[in-house]
């Protein structure tokens, strides 16, 4: 079976992350969830579930023009890492050009089964810059 260069990069990125942060990576195909709905501030990206503990956002974009912006899962801030920085980060900055991101689920959200909605959230103004509802097949 042949994989596109982006899919191959996705698998390589997953392997590198699992060796760097101690997560197991399933040998299953990534599950494509879709794109952010109702985006603002140039928020974009293709969202995948790699395994029960890993959400991958391919080609994430954000213009960085708002204060106090985070990945937010049902009211809980979700740290992330990038290909260029494997140290977990919290606040979102400018992501133009786009960057691949992996969310590091916090204790309050130990798996994707505990997430109903994922958002790019501006805490300063209390508004979403884009969201995706995780479908029922991702929930237990």
Q: Tell the overall outline.
A: globular
Kindly report the average pLDDT value. 83
What's the SSE pattern?
Answer: HEEEEEEEEE
Q: End-to-end span in angstroms? A: 30 Å
Describe this structure in words.
With 140 residues, the protein is mainly beta. It is 12% helix and 36% strand. It contains one helix and nine strands, in the order αβββββββββ. The strands form two sheets. The protein has a five-stranded antiparallel β-sheet, with no helix packed on it. It has a four-stranded antiparallel β-sheet with strand order 5-4-8-9, with no helix packed on it. A hairpin with a 4-residue loop joins strand 8 (117-122) and strand 9 (127-133). The protein is globular. The termini are far apart.
Brief digest:
With 140 residues, this protein is mainly beta. It is built from one helix and nine strands; from the N terminus they run αβββββββββ. A hairpin with a 2-residue loop joins β2 (44-51) and β3 (54-61).
Task: Break the fold down into its secondary structure elements and pairings.
Blueprint: H1 5-21, E1 31-35, E2 44-51, E3 54-61, E4 69-73, E5 76-78, E6 80-82, E7 99-104, E8 117-122, E9 127-133
Antiparallel strand pairs: 1-2, 2-3, 3-7, 4-5, 4-8, 6-7, 8-9
State the main characteristics.
single chain; 5-stranded antiparallel sheet; 1 helix; 36% strand
